[in-house]
Amino acid sequence: MSAVRRLLLIENHLSSKFPNTPQEKGLENFRKLETKVNHNILAKHYFDYFYEAILYTRKIFDESPLFNHEESLGSSIEDYRGKIVEQLKCIYSKFHMSYEKDLANPLYKCSPIYAMTEYDQSLSTRMLVHIILYTDTIQNLGTEKHRELIDRAYALKDYGSFGMTELGHGSDVGRLETTAIYNPKTGGFTLNSPTATSAKWWIGAIANTANMSIIFARLIIDNVDKGIQAFAVPIRNYETHDTLSGVVLGDCGKKISHDGIDNGFILFKNYEIKYDCLLDKLSQIKNGKFKSSIKNKEKRLGIMMGSLIRGRFCVVSGSEINTRSCLTIAIRYGALRKQFGNPNEESILSYQTHNCRLVTGLAKTVAMRCASKVIGDMYKAVKPISDVNPECDELNEFHSVLSSLKCVCSWYGIAISQECREACGGHGVSKYSSLGRHRGYVDVHATWEGDNTVLAQQTSKYILKILQKSFKGQKFIAPTLNFLNIDFQEVKTFKSLFTSRKEFENEKCIISLFEHRVNFLTHTSVMKLQESSMKYSDMTTAWNNSQIFYIQDLSKSFAELIMAREFIKLSDNIYKDCKETGIIIKKLFYLYSADRILDSISLYLESAFTHVQEKIIKETFIKTAAELTPASLHIVDALSASDKILGSVIGSSDGQAYTRMIDAVESELKCYYKPKWLHLIKDIRGS
Amino acid sequence: MSAVRRLLLIENHLSSKFPNTPQEKGLENFRKLETKVNHNILAKHYFDYFYEAILYTRKIFDESPLFNHEESLGSSIEDYRGKIVEQLKCIYSKFHMSYEKDLANPLYKCSPIYAMTEYDQSLSTRMLVHIILYTDTIQNLGTEKHRELIDRAYALKDYGSFGMTELGHGSDVGRLETTAIYNPKTGGFTLNSPTATSAKWWIGAIANTANMSIIFARLIIDNVDKGIQAFAVPIRNYETHDTLSGVVLGDCGKKISHDGIDNGFILFKNYEIKYDCLLDKLSQIKNGKFKSSIKNKEKRLGIMMGSLIRGRFCVVSGSEINTRSCLTIAIRYGALRKQFGNPNEESILSYQTHNCRLVTGLAKTVAMRCASKVIGDMYKAVKPISDVNPECDELNEFHSVLSSLKCVCSWYGIAISQECREACGGHGVSKYSSLGRHRGYVDVHATWEGDNTVLAQQTSKYILKILQKSFKGQKFIAPTLNFLNIDFQEVKTFKSLFTSRKEFENEKCIISLFEHRVNFLTHTSVMKLQESSMKYSDMTTAWNNSQIFYIQDLSKSFAELIMAREFIKLSDNIYKDCKETGIIIKKLFYLYSADRILDSISLYLESAFTHVQEKIIKETFIKTAAELTPASLHIVDALSASDKILGSVIGSSDGQAYTRMIDAVESELKCYYKPKWLHLIKDIRGS
What we know:
- The structure is a homodimer of 687-residue chains.
- Among the domains of chain A are: 1-13 and 40-137, no CATH class; 159-293, Butyryl-CoA Dehydrogenase, subunit A, domain 2 (Beta Barrel), CATH 2.40.110; 498-639, Butyryl-CoA Dehydrogenase, subunit A, domain 3 (Up-down Bundle).
- The first copy, chain A, is built from 27 helices and 13 strands.
- In chain A, a hairpin with a 2-residue loop joins strand 5 and strand 6.
- Chain A is of the alpha+beta class and 687 residues long.
- Chains A and B meet through helix 6, strand 7, helix 13, helix 14 and helix 15 of A and helix 6, strand 7, helix 13, helix 14 and helix 15 of B.
- Chains A, B: Pfam families: ACOX, ACOX_C_alpha1, Acyl-CoA_dh_M.
C-alpha cells in the first residue's frame, strides 16, 4: 500500500461519514450451527501433495507487502504488470526450481502455480507460460544441445513464451501459417509471417517480458511443406531487451480479464535463425533431408503439443481454485446476509433457493479438486513411460482423461462463478467483492489450452476406439475404461434397484449409474455415427454431425465418472482420519452425484430407473443441500486462504462485510468528489 | 475521437507493421448461402412499436461524433461518465418528452431507452433512472401538488434518482432502515440513516448527477412505525450542485460493469424535509394521524413499487438487445472464421457444436423480444385500469407475467452471452469484440429491479392463487391462465400424439405441451406445498422449502408459454407480409420450442410423451439448427444496428474481423512500447 493510500485510509477511518456499526455477528453465529468439520484434516486431504506448497506460499503472500489486492485494483495496467514481475521474482526465489527436481517429481513445478492461483491467476499464468509451456516444450521436443536452454529457463536467465496460436488459427494447429524455410546454404531457417492472420496472437509474456519464445511454424524444405515444427527462438536482445531485427512484438490490447498478463503478437520478417533453434527430438534435417521418427503428421503434431499437458492440468486446478474462492465469498456472504424471515431475519443461505445453488457448487468444486488429483496421479505414472515411448497406450488414455476433465471443470467453474455473482446480488457486482475477477479467470478456461468442444471430441474418439478394439477382441491398456460393456442389449436393459434415499446413497449404486451413462452414450454414439455415415459422404462430416446429445455428452459423462470415483477415495481417506468430517464429505459426494445424474435424467429414464426413483434422487438432492448448509461454511473456512489473499470485502472470514465495503468505498480518492464535468450537469439541466 | 487519437490511427494505418491482407470474403460468401430473409419486413415486425424510434435513434448515433465506442474504451471512468451526460442531453433534446405524451402512450418513454441500449446500456440506464424510476414514482404516488416536480423532471430541470435499496437490504424492501420521523410541530419529516447498513446504496445518478431523489423510508409518527413511504427529496443545491446540509452523497466505487453509471450512496443526518416531499396519493397524515387508502402494509408496499414496472420492462428489453448484439457478433464471426475442413476450411458456424449453440440462442432472443411485446401490449391495456384501481385483477396478472418474463429473459441473456464469448474463442476475450461489455450488461439483470429468485415466487404465488380460486369456483380475470386445468387426473394423463417431426412442428401441438408443463407444475407445486405444510410449522417455511423443482420451475414454465404464444403471433404476422421470411421465423419457433421442451424432459416423460417422441424432438432440434444456420446470419443482419453502434471489430458487417482487430490493437498508444519497469525484467532475469 502506498503511503498516500494508507494515510487516506486512516483518515477515512477517522473521518468516516457513516454511523458506527456494532460488530456484525451473523457469520459467527452461523458457524456455531455446525462443529463437526475438522478443518485441518479436511485441508490436508483436500490439498494432498500441494498441501505443503499451499501453506508455504500462503505465508509468503500474507507476510510480504508485495502482495496486495487493494493496491492492484487501484493501479494502472502497466503498474499492475510491473508489480507482477516483482511478485514472480519473490515467489521464484523461494521455490528453487531445476530440471533435476522436475525429473524427480513431475508435479513439483505445478505446486507454486497452484498456490499462486489462489492469490491471482494473472500471476500464476505468468509463471506457467514460462516454466511449463515454454520450458516443457524444450524438455519434450529438444535434444541434448538444448539442455543449456532448459537450465537457463530454470535459472530464469531466459524468460520464455509459447508462440502457438495465431490471429487466424487456434484450435486447428495443423493450419498455422508462420513459415520456417530451411536454408540449405546456412543450414538454418528463415521465419516469416506471410499474412496478417499468421501473426502469433495472444502470446503471454510477449508484449513486455519474454526474451525467448517457442514458435510453432510450418517447415518448408525445398518448397515442400513438411508440417508444423517447434523452434526455440530469441526474440529480444538479451542485454538491452530490444526487439531483435526481423521480429515485431506488440501488445494485444484491452482484454476483459487477465490484465496482469502481457499478451502480445509476434511477426517475423525474414528472420534468420540457426538450425539448433529447431527442437529436433522427433524430427531432424540431415543433409538437407527431413526425417522424423513419427511418420504420421497428425500423430506427430499431437505429441508436439505435449507441453500443453501440464498447462491443462493447471487449467483444471485453476478452475477449482477460482471457483472455490467464489464459493468462499458467496457462502460467507450468504451466511451473514439476512433478508426476510419472521420475526427474525434469516441468513439467505438458509433458503432452499440459495443453498441448492451454492452447496451444490461446493460439491462440484470438491469434484474438481478430485479431477486434479486424478490428473496428478496419472501424470506421475505416465510420464516416465511416455518419455520413453510417446506413442504408448498409457499416454493416450491419460490424454483422454485430461481433455474431458479440462472441459468439464472449466464449464463447472463458469457456471458456478456466475451463480456466486448472482447469489451476492448487487454487492457481487462491486469489484471489492472480487467475484468479477475470479469469474473472469475461469471464463477463459473454456478456451485456452484447447477449446472445450474440440477437446471433448478427442476423449470421445478415444473411448469409441477402445470400444471398437473390444469388439474385435483386441487387448488394450485403459484401466479407466475397464467397465466398458460391449453388449448394448445388456446396457440398454440395465436397471438400478435403489428404492430409498438410503439405498441410493451408496457408492456402488452411484458408480454403477455413472458407468451406465458412459456405456449408454458410448453405444448410442456408435449407433448415431453409423446412422450419420449412411447420410454423409465422409466420416468427418458424419462425426461432426453426431456431436450434440451424443459425442459431446459422452466425454462429459466419462469425466464425471472419473471425478466420482476419486471423490469416493477422498471421502474414504478423510473418514479414516475423522469419521465425522468423512461423513460430511460423503454427503457432499451424494449431492454431487444426485445433481449430475439428474442432469442426464432422460437417459436414465430410458431404462436405468423410474420416475419414482427420480423423485428419490430429487429429494436426496434437496435434503442433502439443506443438511450440508451449516457444514458448507466450515468447508470453505477450512480450505480458504487468508482474507488478505482472498481479497474480498464481502467474503472476509470475520463477517464484517458491510464495514469493509464502506471502508473500501470511502478509501477511493473519488468517493466524495465533484467530477470535472460539473458544468455538463448544469448544462443538461438548463436544457 | 480526439485529434491525437485520429492522427495516431492514420499513422498506424500507414505504418502498420502487419503484412497487407486481401479483403476477407468469408462473411460475404456465407451470406450468399441464403437469400430468403426479407430484412425490412423482419425488422419492421420485430421492432414493432419501437421501429420508428430505433431508426431515428440509430441515425443520431451514426451521425453524431458524440457517440464513439472506441473513445469510451480508451477514456477514464470520469471522462466516460461526462461523455454520457453529453450524450443524454443530445438524445433527450430529440425526443421532447412530456407528461402528456406519457399519458397518451405508456410506451413512449420506453422507446428512446430501448434504442439507446443498442448503443450502450450505461447510457440508457441513466435515462431510465431519471425518467422512469424517479418520475414514475412521482406520477404513481404523488398528488396534484407534485405536478410541478413531474414537469420539472420531463423538462430535465431536475435530474432524479431512485433511493430504494440500502446497503443492508435489497429484496426485502419492507425492512429498509432509513427513517422519516414526522414532526408534528413543523408538519414535516426528519430523515435519518440510523445505521451504516441503512445507507442507500447502488443508487444510480447519486455519485455525481442527481439533484433530486426518491427516498423510501420508514415513516415514524409518535414513535409508531407506519411502514415504508416514498418521498421526493432534494439532495443537491439546485444552483451550486453542492450536497445539501444533512445529506451525505458518495460514490459506490469500482464495479465489474456499468462504469458509465454513477452509482452512489446516500446518508441522512437529521435532514429536515417538508410535508410535501411525502408522495401522498395512497397515504396521508392529517392532523397528525396517518391514513391510507390501502390498509394492508404489504399490499401498499407492492403498489408503491409500481414504478419498477417500466423498469422491469426495460430489463426484459435490455436482455434482448444485449443478447442480440452478442449473437450478431458471434454469428458473424462464426461465419467468417474458418477452422478445420478438408480440403477447404469450413466456417466454424457450420459445425453442429457451433450452430446448436448460436442459432438456438437466436431463437431465444426472438422469444425475448416477444416477451417485450407481450409486456408492452399488456401494459398499454392495464395502465388506464390500474390508474383508477391499483388493486385490480388485471394489474396482478400483469405483474405475474412481467415478473416471470424478467427472470427468464435475464437468465437467457446471461447464458447466451457466455456462449457467445466462448464461441468467439480468444478473440471474445478482447475488449474490441465488445462481448465482455454486453455480457456485463445482461449479468446485472438477474439482480436489479428485483432479484430473480424472489420475483419468480411472486408469479407462482399468483398462479397458485388462481388455481385455488378455480377450485372454489370463484371467478377471476386472468386471460393468460385460461388454460389452467383444475383436474390433476386429466393433467397427469395428458398425452401428446405427434409421431413425426412434421406433426411436432405444429403450433397447437407445441402450445399444448407448453400449457401442459404449466398445469403439471401448478399441481405438483400444490402437492409439494401440502406435503411441506405437514412437515413445517408455518406456511412461509413450507413455501420456502417447495421451491426447487416446483415453485421456481412453475414461474419459468409460465413465462415460456407466454413467449411461445407471442412467437407464433409474430411469425404469423411476418408470414402474412412475406411467406418465406415467415417460414424461417416459424422454424425458429420450432427450434425454441424443441429446446425448451427438452429442458424439462423428465416432466414430459412422466406422461406427455415417450422416449421415441423425445428422439423426434431431439432430431428436430439438431436439424432445425442446421437448416437455419445460413438464415441466422441474415436475421442478425436484418436486426442489427450499424457497425459503429455495435462497436465490435470481430462482429462488423463487412467481415473484416482480422484487419479491424489489427487496427484496434495498433491504435493503442501502448501497442509498441516499453514499460517503465523494464529494469524489473532485467532484475528478475539476473536472479
